[in-house]
Amino acid sequence: MESLKSPGPDGLPPLFYKHYWSIVKKDVIAAVLNFFTSGKLVQQSNHTFIALIPKVEGASKVNQFRPISLCNVSYKIAGKILASRLKGILPKIVSPWQGAFVPGRLIQDNTIIAQEVVSSMKKSIVKDGFIAIKLDMEKAYDMMEWSFLLHILKLLGFCDKWIELIRECISSPSFSVLINGSPHDMISPSRGLRQGDPLSPFLFILGTEVFSRILITAEENHLFKGFTLARTCPRVSHLLFADDLIIFASANREGAKAIQKCLSKYQSWSGQKVNMNKSAIMFSKKVPRGAQRSICRLLHLSSTPFHAKYLGLPLSKESTITKTLESVVDKVSQKVQSWKSSLLSQASRTCLIRSVAAATPIYSMSSVLFPKGICNKIDALLRDFWWGKREGKGVLYLKDWSSMCKPKSVGGLGLRRTKDMNAALLAKMGWSMASKEKKLWVNFFAAKYLKGQSFWNIKLSSSASWVWKSVLSSRELLSKGICWKIGDGRGLEAWDNPWIPSLEGFKPSPKSQEARHPLWVSELIINNPPRWDLDKLKNFFDDNTIRAIQEIHLSQIPQQNKMCWAPSSSGKFTAKSAYWLDQKPRFENNGPLTSVEWKSLWKLKIHDRLKLMLWKMAWGMLPTMAALNVRFRVNSTQCQLCNSGVETLEHLFIECPFARIAWYLSPWPIRFNVISPLSISEWIKLILNPADLLGCPKEEERHLTLFAAICCDMIWMKRNEATRKPEKVEPAKLAAQIKLNYTNHFQAREFQAQTRFQFSGWDPSPPPSVKINFDAALLNGKASVAAVCRNHCGTILFIWADQVVCSNPLIVEAQAALLASTKAVELGFHSVYLEGDALNVIQAIVEFPNEVFWTISNIARDISLLLSSIDFWHSSYVPRSCNSTAHNIAKWALFCNASGTIPISSLPAHVLAEVAEGSGSPAM
């Protein structure tokens, strides 16, 4: 539970329980266990406040408010446990036509299919035509009958005990409505589900599943006919997402009657009611006017054009895509205009753009390709908002938006261009198609468009839908990041497929053009046990490719080849990693600071407004008189503070007598006469790293940096005041203001030392177990792995080492863990503790079968198989200081090319000394 979620009537948010868990846990656990054993809730724990959230501006009617239930956390804990159990089995009992709240299903799955069906319906030449009925349920949660839900649970096979627990959760609450923040009266409900109860979403979709099955049964009995997207896939008769429903059918009166009967049956059973104001029918072109009127009268619904919205997205484009997506631009515009940019600092605007405004179009961008014009309009709105442009007035853009939309580490602000985000989000759809994910829409698109052909080679037909064009637009981006993880190598062509992670482009290079002929990866593998055929590798590939292939570990358990997304450590696609991969060529640092210095600037523990000030100074983005004179002709370029000298950034902050006095009067008297002339970027570097240049103690760096940032900010503010009101500014008064600001900032700033667990050194394992420490060493493409086995007294029992062909540190560390596991099994140990200083490897072992790092998942699989034969094993991370013995032996083994079991007597004196020191007891 999120810590600051709204509390219930007891006023205690989740944060209270987390903070005081040591005090309240006994009572909370007892209360929850009592509920599960007795089946009864304490009445007070299930009392609920109702907060009325307006749906529209100026809401005045009851139906214009959304009732949100504020449940007590003590109840939510029990409800969450039940919800988690129920959530796990939903994919098995809820039909694929429902997309809400089911693990693995997304809202886009529904919108994609709906848009594709509507696109096909518009092009259909079937004589009678088709209809799409868009339905919205009125007060869906509030009107759900309890008896109906409990009966459904019984029919689905839930046990009586479970049903009684659910009955208690949904029927025992009482309500008080919050009016102006105060609770009023007590209401005892007779039906409905609470919006805010963890159970409600899952119970609701079990109720709507009944309607889904009613429609499926009616279609199977030929009472109405759904829409066929492709001959090889089932008809689409309906799509459900919570209380939003769309039904597709042939446009005839008989089918409409059947749908009306299905709807009436569901409403009478469940208590649900269709909201006629939000529901409508869409007709394809071939449906006669008379038939349209007849069907509308029968269903008591009005007609609407196909570009109506379903789940917030247009079902079909209007005359142009640009016109269809204008509503997205309007949403962004409304967001931006609702904030008074003149009252916000640029740091605040940056935060709002990143977290709110730029996020507004993301939902739409996840499904369709935005035209360039729409992307430019959205970017222009965000750019103008950042620069503070007002209606009817011009604004001075001192830096182009594209360079601001770069990571902070290369001199940008971490903002993102709309077209770049659109490309990365659409790549997620492309990934689903390319990897053949088990999604309903993927099956439909494969049947309609691919028809057995490769996703990579299929040509875009002129009749393709808007959505399919969007999916295919992602192929170029995807091709940069896809890499196959080798299992058995079968069915994978060796030359044209990407399958070698450590090579650029992931594809092999031939030894010569003559060596390039049809070849499967499986032909390069020798089985029993699986290993690479070195002779064949030498026949086909160049030396660099051979070395890269040898780094690929072949699992001892035969596996199928798997498509992975290389930029992501887990191998699973993420839009974030796709964005970075796509924009990597653009993310070059050609600014005044190095990447390390940019990172240092943004990590400073100072106010964001001050960081932005330093950033603008570094880029020369402040409108000094000299800068303005370059763009316009100004009357005078003189400094506004001292009225002598050209007002450049260097003059204003470094050379100006006024500024120099302010610096000199600081707690760290800075004398510019002893510092060589500085450019503004050099001055920023000095602020970021004052210890080296000014000779101040290292511990005072953060104080001086904070002071310098405030000083620059105050000098600029005084300069602006002098521009508006030419008055003499007293340097001493300015210095006093700077000092006051510095004191206030410093007091507000929290320098909290992070408490971390302190490792004291190597610790022995409990008797009678053994502990095996492992590590690896790498140098110039050569690698060695080592493992040191000790008993519970700390006495060294065995030392092993091996040489591996690999230049990837993560893979080499995983090979070291594999060596340790192999030896533990070979020697028949029953209780083993594994320790290493590679956190990523430990994670991969502990979290298997979840693939945390796809490049070592085969090794993690083999380690898991080996360790499964041991009675007890435990794997944990330790810092290098606690793993020094294995580390030093790995370095020594690399130097002398040692492998196998290493006698302690063969170790040189300096290694023996390090081993004795790092083992916790003298080496035997």
UniProtKB/TrEMBL annotation:
Domain Reverse transcriptase: 34-315
Chain ranges passing through the membrane: none
Any matching Pfam family: RVT_3
InterPro entries recorded: DNA/RNA_pol_sf (IPR043502), RNase_H-like_dom_plant (IPR044730), RNaseH_domain (IPR002156), RNaseH_sf (IPR036397), RT_dom (IPR000477), RVT-Znf (IPR026960)
GO MF term list: nucleic acid binding; RNA-DNA hybrid ribonuclease activity
Domain of life: Eukaryota
Annotated protein name in UniProt: Reverse transcriptase domain-containing protein
Species classification: Eukaryota, Viridiplantae, Streptophyta, Embryophyta, Tracheophyta
